[in-house]
Amino acid sequence: MIEVVRPALTAERVKDLALNTRLVLHGARAEAIAPVVEQIFGMLDDLDSVGLGETPPSFSFRANWK
Amino acid sequence: MDLPFRSITAASAALKDKGISPVELVEKCLDRAEFVQGEINPFVIILHDQALIAARRAEAEIAKGNYRGALHGIPLVIKDLCDIEGLPTTASSKVRFDHIANENAACVERLVEAGAIIVGKTHTHEFAYGIITPKTRNPWNKNHIPGGSSGGTAAAVASGACLGGIGTDTGGSIRIPASVCGTVGLKPTFGRVSRYGVTSLSWSLDHVGPLTYSVTDAAIMLGAIAGFDVRDPGSVKVPVPDYMEPGSNNLDGLRVGLPTNFYFDGIDSEVETIVRQAYKVLEQAGASLVEVTLPFADKYMGVEFGLCLPEASAYHQKMLRERSDKYEDDVRTFLEAGELIPATDYIKALRVREKIKQGWQELYEKIDVLVAPSTPATAAKVGQENFQWPNGTEETVTSAYVRLSCPANLTGLPSISVPCGFSSEELPVGIQVLGRPFEEKTIIHVARVYESLTEWHKQFPRL
User: Fold this and answer.
1) Residues of B with CB below 8 A from A18's CB?
2) By Cβ atoms counted within 10 A, which residue in A28, B87, B129, B232 is the most buried?
């Protein structure tokens, strides 16, 4: 179980994270998306309780050509 | 003026017997489409000239005895997320003002080969990223939404502006509008229908399927569009059965799963009563009801959003940086948010998806199909943000609609929504039948038997 909690997402932090993806967000946009991202992070963190063991991801890839 | 036929089946019989010509049928359809457009705006574009040229061609072919089958001369619509050669694919977005398709999407290609006449392209929630379809209204009540994202197709089919249409479904976008507009909507198994030429929302969750007046019509359309396509990496090479093969008129021996958790946890009480009545109809038809508990039920939304958000943001990565001001605010917010999800969290969601799939496989050892409400409420009012549930909780309209739809997207299982009643406000309610992978035939059979025992599909909105 991952015990470290993600820090609260302020508009400034959202701007920094976005910049890391080469996306420039201005103040109002950063404020608008912060609660959405927090909600999604909450849902993703809740998935930690599933025991995944060696479960592989379900990628969709087909190596054949026809 | 109403169309002389509501169903593909009836129109097709008349076309084959030359009781009506394709040109007559398409002319009547275009008239109706114009009227409906003025009322509820389901169309991005009505293809007058193109449809009439195709109708004349179909008429000549049928006259010469070259009848291609049940879709020959049948007027259909296409969600404006799918490419039609030479036309813009707007995805109902200002972002795509200059996007002209240079070939047909696979589903369009197959429908045209089957002789269908494309009469228009229909509105979607912008880039299929939402369940409102704000440009279109519900034909049952113009103060309500048509659902989405295939809201334009559902509204056009329900109002008789065409005889069927194509939708896409990433988190319920075929079944949600089908349910709240009172049509049939079929999301096939992941890999059954090619997505080639269809604007993606989320590659790992996107499906293409039909919306129609009846279950048989959905079977006809699925038969035309199903099949392997090497151009779609998610396409699966499995045989396509004859969906029109006559089955029994009962459900003897069929085990129908009745969920004891999840699907009825947050639901409008009137919708619940109507849906529970539908189980009784299935039981009377010979099915045995088996109570089941869905595995990982509290993880579905996390996986759905955990996959959809980063995949959508990846698709839009360049456009978001070049044309961000042209997106609607709600879609832009989701796209920007999706940029910030770490790849490791995305892959965790993919792995949990695999566990969910395994859990559902075990579930289907006890049942043949699962039956559940398609949506937990009828069509929301335009501008409505939340639903209130009987237990005092509140849920956003988006979350409520996607919640009951997304299990079929996550598991990839086929699911068909059929009308099962009306609320006291005269708004349609739908149930969905979910089957095993590539067993569309089974869910079509169950839905067809249910439909034959009820009259809900025979009611039409008064536009």
Assistant:
1) 336, 339-340
2) B129
